[in-house]
Design brief:
With 175 residues, the protein is an all-alpha fold. 72% of the residues lie in helices and 0% in strands. Helix 1 crosses helix 4. The protein is globular.
Length: 175
């Protein structure tokens, strides 16, 4: 595994902060929204991390991590458009949630892969992207994403009366 560059360290540290922020946001508010400072913070960190991922080429060219970076940027923009302009009316909140929550999955896939391929130093857990441990983590994250997203969508459906007034503000009232 190649040494980490300064860009790699910057990307990794901000990625950890982004995931911690996402965890807090989802635990406290159930959804990510720009209506909250913590949601704005997560999305800003996510854009920086996804953008910086596009500048890291230590695996021989444009790869899956770069594709996930592009998907992350598309998901953030799509979620923001749905949150700000409600292009699909009441259904926009669902698309916003799908977009923003997908970014968490897109963070986790390269994060666990890089973690397992780098640590412990000198004798990493895995040496291949195809290692069963990596694949099982990816499948576990996908399952967690599906269950989490499903519960978010059900929660949004239950909140639909309050959301008809103001999608962004009603979605994440400060408690």
């Amino acid at each position: 595994m190649p040494e980490m560059t300064w860009l790699g360290w910057f990307h990794t540290v901000l990625g950890v902060f982004a995931l911690l922020t996402a965890g807090y946001t989802l635990a406290k508010y159930r959804v990510i929204s720009m209506a909250l400072w913590v949601g704005k913070t997560y999305l800003l960190l996510t854009v920086i991390v996804a953008g910086s991922a596009l500048g890291i080429y230590n695996q021989g060219g444009f790869g899956i991590a770069h594709m996930l970076g592009v998907l992350t940027l598309v998901a953030v923009v799509g979620g923001a458009v749905m949150e700000k302009f409600a292009l699909f009316g009441a259904a926009s909140k669902y698309f916003q949630t799908i977009g923003y929550t997908s970014t968490v999955l897109f963070h986790m896939i390269p994060a666990i892969t890089d973690f397992l391929r780098r640590l412990p130093l000198g004798d990493p857990f895995v040496d291949s992207f195809d290692d069963p441990l990596v694949v099982n983590f990816h499948l576990a994250f996908l399952a967690l994403y599906a269950v989490g997203l499903g519960s978010q969508l059900l929660w949004l459906k239950a909140q639909s009366g309050a959301l008809e007034v103001e999608p962004s503000a009603a979605l994440c009232k400060e408690q």
